[in-house]
Amino acid sequence: MRRLTWRPAELVAAAAETASARTLRFRVPGWPGHLAGQHVDVRLTAEDGYTAQRSYSMAAPADGDLVELTVETVTDGEVSPYLVEELRVGDQVELRGPVGGWFVWRPESTAPVLLVGGGSGIVPLMSMIRARRQAGSRAPFRLLYSLRDPDRRYYADELRRPDPGLDVTYLYTRSAPEHVSRPARRIMLDDLAEGGWPASFEPDCYVCGPTGFVEAAADLLLALGHAPERIRTERFGPTGG
Amino acid sequence: MSIISRGFRGKRRDDSGRVPPGQYLVDDFPVLSAGPTPRVPLDRWEFAIDTEAEQTHRWSWEEFMALPAETPTVDIHCVTKWSKLDTTWEGVSLDVLFEDVETAAEYALVHSYGGYTTNLPLEDLLDGKAWIVHRFDGEELAPQHGGPARLIVPHLYFWKSAKWVRGIRLLNEDWPGFWETAGYHNYGDPWREQRYEGD
């Protein structure tokens, strides 16, 4: 039987994504690899032995013993403020995983893919985009990325670079850049009808974000005729930290 | 031996021994589910227990609502690490639903509208340990929390407490459910931190 053990993980690189989110790259000796979309448990231990653990989605596909996360700091959170603001290159935490065998994309799949991300829900979807590129997959991907304003964009430079077969649409909910004609508003049926795939293409749909966003987006996909079993969801509560 | 995280202190909340290892307390009620939220009209809702001898016991919404109700107050623990204390529910004890069910089966496979399944030993559903509930915190159970009715089995991780519950199939052999075949623990006791396969 497979058993997930806690492994020491050393921070080898870190970069800010936004004012409140940070991408962390850990070296984890013995890491067994993972699929795009999976997550990992992170455990912090204080000097007196007190521990706290949380789950975070991985932001990139397997690359030897490297594991990459993007963490959004949660106000009054316990673990995320430490990971975003305190942790330095060379410091150690513990990781356990990979976890989750449902919200995953496999490089051998050729079906069209619709990725619908809200806020930090982009993280596991980015892992899928990167896995597609890494594998040289020709599965057509569309990403709808809902976010408050342009300053909240994760992976901005990378998503701006052309990636044949990947279409990216930003859906701003509070304030949009001037050149964008769509008014800032929450995700609507037209957004999914225009930026997604017709249901007749039978795309695999991955929806990730805060609960309200996921409920709304999944209901809209159903209304457009997508089969419920092709809609995979993952919810990121504000609760967490 | 654990690795010390330099400078980490954490936020400690006194929980009087009510929070299992690796969990933290929340005051809100996060939602987790693997797909879209199914909407089940009450006039088409039913709950059924199927025995290993292929006997079926069936309740319509009206019949279910006519059963004696209880109002359990319980602590719940989600495998994604949050715990919530003193949650209040209203519903029917599985002991009531099993009153006329004749079975020698040891295992139960719970199934839901939308196709979700989860498995557990039958004994974990009996003797005041589980309910089919239709109200939470004094209100009708919202669809995203499993309404119109969900199972609650508070002594196991909350993925065992199937939302949108539709029925229970009794089996002579254990049959792993949705998360149980996707890397999660077969039993899921939070106090033994049985989160994942092999824990």
Automatic annotation (TrEMBL), chain B:
Pfam families: Oxidored_molyb (PF00174). Residues 35-179 form the Oxidoreductase molybdopterin-binding domain. Residues 1-22 are annotated as: Disordered. SUPFAM superfamilies: Oxidoreductase molybdopterin-binding domain. It comes from the Bacteria. This is Sulfite oxidase-like oxidoreductase. It comes from Nonomuraea composti.
